[in-house]
Specification:
Largest sheet: 4 strands, mixed
Number of helices: 7
Radius of gyration: 21 Å
Strand content: 5-15%
Shape: globular
CATH topology of the largest domain: Alkaline Phosphatase, subunit A
CATH class of the largest domain: Alpha Beta
Distance between the termini: 26 Å
Structural class: alpha+beta
Number of strands: 10
Strand order of the largest sheet: 1-2-3-4
Helix content: 10-25%
């Protein structure tokens, strides 16, 4: 229930990829009140189980309500529920009831709507947790809260979206002390929080081993007891022991690609390579995150051996990334 963004036509939706129930936007982030994506052939994708629908209400409330309703309809059988909220994706426009809760110390139209959006999201997550508690599922449920990118500072009232009378001004996503924002391969664009709650199983505390969002597929499958009978070419690693024992992961290449393939990055331990462009237009950056977490000093010229190593690893991972799982 929420933002799909992996195919904007009904036949490309979650119901065709193993989900029993689907609701929300088949496209990306939508306007909060009219639930439209950017102007174009797939602007209207708000749906329930392949049928396009029209509903009144704020997108955060609708997504949370659908999740709660689905939990309430379940019996005792195990389940997997994926709830990709659109908050705090642009465009943002919050109800008055949430704007009134924003402290007076936060000034400006967009900053106040942004703060209200975060508070609204927090409350929506709480509604889902409460639904689990009421059904008696909370103590036997693994909850994962994470994000797909860093904060953004672009214009909130993007004219590509159908008019929803959203406030004008820049978003106030703050990724400090990291460099960059959403869409970048600098740490500010890719480093996000991950919060896990699993009563009696997840060990309390903080874990500093780098993990990536693709790790959740093998991890959740392992926890659920699924053992594939062949290589499914998963991009991630099972991190169940990181959750339960805070086990340190071995150093491994962590690979990322910017939208449109304009840049690629690879992290190996504390070293990070970013390659911008291709061919004669290619530009490389090499950072030592242990001593320069803000990525302010490009060491590509000073560390030719390390650069060569990471470029080779990048090519290896990119080649493997082109593998695909058979349709059967």
């Amino acid at each position: 229930t929420g933002k799909w963004h992996l195919g904007s036509l009904p036949e490309q939706g979650p119901n065709h990829f193993g989900f029993d129930h689907s609701y929300g936007s088949l496209a990306g982030g939508v306007s909060p009140w009219n639930h439209r994506y950017k102007q174009g052939p797939v602007s209207q994708t708000w749906h329930r189980n392949e049928k396009l629908i029209e509903e009144a209400g704020h997108v955060t409330d609708l997504i949370a309500a659908e999740a709660v309703k689905w939990i309430d309809s379940r019996g005792a059988a195990p389940f997997f529920l994926y709830v990709p909220f659109t908050a705090v994706h642009l465009p943002i426009k919050e109800p008055d009831e949430w704007l009134r809760r924003v402290p007076d110390t936060i000034k400006g139209d967009v900053p106040r709507h942004y703060a209200a959006c975060v508070m609204h999201l927090d409350d929506a997550v709480g509604r889902i947790v409460t639904a689990l508690e009421k059904k008696g599922h909370r103590d036997n449920t693994l909850l994962v809260f994470t994000s797909d990118n860093g904060g953004s500072t672009v214009e909130n009232n993007d004219l590509k979206y159908p008019d929803d009378n959203c406030p004008n001004g820049k978003l106030v996503g703050n990724n400090k002390p990291w460099r960059g924002q959403k869409g970048d391969l600098y740490e500010g664009g890719t480093r996000v929080p991950t919060i896990v709650s699993w009563p009696g199983r997840a060990k309390p505390g903080k874990v500093h081993s780098p993990v990536q969002i693709t790790d959740w597929m093998p991890t959740l499958c392992t926890i659920a007891g699924f053992r594939p009978d062949r290589d499914l070419k998963w991009d991630g690693t099972n991190i169940a022991l990181v959750l339960t024992e805070h086990t340190e992961l071995p150093i491994r290449p962590l690979y990322a690609v910017a939208p449109g393939w304009r840049s690629r990055s690879l992290r190996l331990g504390n070293w990070k390579l970013i390659v911008h462009g291709e061919g004669n237009a290619r530009r490389v950056e090499l950072f030592d995150l242990a001593h320069d977490p803000a990525e302010s000093k490009n060491l590509a010229d000073q560390q030719p051996d390390k650069l060569k190593l990471l470029l080779g690893k990048l090519d290896e991972v990119a080649a493997r990334d082109r593998d695909a799982v058979a349709k059967d």
